Amino acid sequence: MESCLPRSFLTPSVLSTDRKNWRGQDISKFCFPTQVSGSRERDILRVYYVRCNVANIKEKLALSRRRNREWIVHAASRQPLESGPGEFNSGRIRDSVKNAVDAFYRFSRPHTVIGTALSIISVSLLAVEKLSDISPLFFTGVLEAVVAALFMNIYIVGLNQLSDIDIDKVNKPYLPLASGEYTVGTGVMIVTSFSIMSFWLGWIVGSWPLFWALFVSFLLGTAYSINLPMLRWKRSAVVAAMCILAVRAVIVQIAFFLHIQTHVYKRPLVLSRPLIFATAFMSFFSVVIALFKDIPDIDGDKIFGIQSFTVRLGQERVFWICISLLEMAYGVAVLVGSVSSCLWSKVLTVLGHALLGYLLWSRAKSIDLRSKVAITSFYMFIWKLFYAEYLLIPLVR
């Protein structure tokens, strides 16, 4: 009997009205041809309403599912949902690798790494006497020396950071140990690993000049930084400068020259004129680096009692001492180049050193010594002059 009711009539708005409104619709004439009691009529309508309501709910659920499928397809056309977690994980991995490389890059102090590599290559070229000396044997010997020395370089700068964490929080807060990116345990693991690899490589190469260069660098680098009785030589300005001079000016020049001369080429020991010049010139440069590196670090050194020349004499005075020493070195280099018997060597060394001396003086006159950023930038400029000198040294003949 319920099926005779039209669906459009049995809408929720009609069925939800009160009984008075139902009777006003003349339901008996519309759907009940025979006599039906009022209570029976209402029961029939309620049953039908429930069935219609269930049908409406099912239709709405179906429509909702359809719309959800359409939204998923639309989203998939722009960025697949299945690849989302994978892309997210790969992005996190890339970020982690990038951060790890950046932290190690800062930990290794790249300006010292570049300086070490250039100095060894430059000094090795001083042992070259003729074009045929540039051979695979030469490149192998240079590569062995560079890799072993870089491992030791990372040990030395890493140990210095481990010993200066509190100072670096003031002077160099961007370094991994000072910033907290590396734990002390991580730093110890890195410096221990690189020192072992350096000695291992120096031993298997079988070159005594190379091995002794690594060993003496290890001893001086450890004594310079480590905080033990009778050690931590960086607290004394004079001793600290002598350590840097010994490593940068003497060991690098003589030991790595002998590595190529005696171990690679199997020639007798000869201290050539270019080697003597390189050792003398880099002695000046090493002293300047030892003095200048403390100029931007004066705040932390004062707090922790490091009696550097900058703390004792003041930034401006030490700055101009460094400039004067370098200008003297460039003047001597011009004189040495001018007496060379080789025309191309004379021209290149005289013009090259004169140009570097002019660039140094021009930039020194414009620096603002009240700005730590400007002083640090000038310190990096001195390292660039250091690199440039190692490009000129092989030309001295």
TrEMBL record:
<keyword id="KW-0808">Transferase</keyword>
<dbReference type="InterPro" id="IPR044878">
    <property type="entry name" value="UbiA_sf"/>
</dbReference>
<feature type="transmembrane region" description="Helical">
    <location>
        <begin position="270"/>
        <end position="292"/>
    </location>
</feature>
<comment type="similarity">
    <text>Belongs to the UbiA prenyltransferase family.</text>
</comment>
<dbReference type="InterPro" id="IPR044502">
    <property type="entry name" value="AtHST-like"/>
</dbReference>
<feature type="transmembrane region" description="Helical">
    <location>
        <begin position="318"/>
        <end position="337"/>
    </location>
</feature>
<dbReference type="GO" id="GO:0004659">
    <property type="term" value="F:prenyltransferase activity"/>
</dbReference>
<dbReference type="InterPro" id="IPR000537">
    <property type="entry name" value="UbiA_prenyltransferase"/>
</dbReference>
<keyword id="KW-0934">Plastid</keyword>
<keyword id="KW-0809">Transit peptide</keyword>
<keyword id="KW-1133">Transmembrane helix</keyword>
<dbReference type="Pfam" id="PF01040">
    <property type="entry name" value="UbiA"/>
</dbReference>
<feature type="transmembrane region" description="Helical">
    <location>
        <begin position="343"/>
        <end position="361"/>
    </location>
</feature>
<feature type="transmembrane region" description="Helical">
    <location>
        <begin position="180"/>
        <end position="203"/>
    </location>
</feature>
<feature type="transmembrane region" description="Helical">
    <location>
        <begin position="373"/>
        <end position="393"/>
    </location>
</feature>
<keyword id="KW-0150">Chloroplast</keyword>
<protein>
    <submittedName>
        <fullName>Homogentisate phytyltransferase 1, chloroplastic</fullName>
    </submittedName>
</protein>
<feature type="transmembrane region" description="Helical">
    <location>
        <begin position="238"/>
        <end position="258"/>
    </location>
</feature>
<feature type="transmembrane region" description="Helical">
    <location>
        <begin position="209"/>
        <end position="226"/>
    </location>
</feature>
<keyword id="KW-0812">Transmembrane</keyword>
<feature type="transmembrane region" description="Helical">
    <location>
        <begin position="134"/>
        <end position="159"/>
    </location>
</feature>
<keyword id="KW-0472">Membrane</keyword>
<dbReference type="GO" id="GO:0031969">
    <property type="term" value="C:chloroplast membrane"/>
</dbReference>
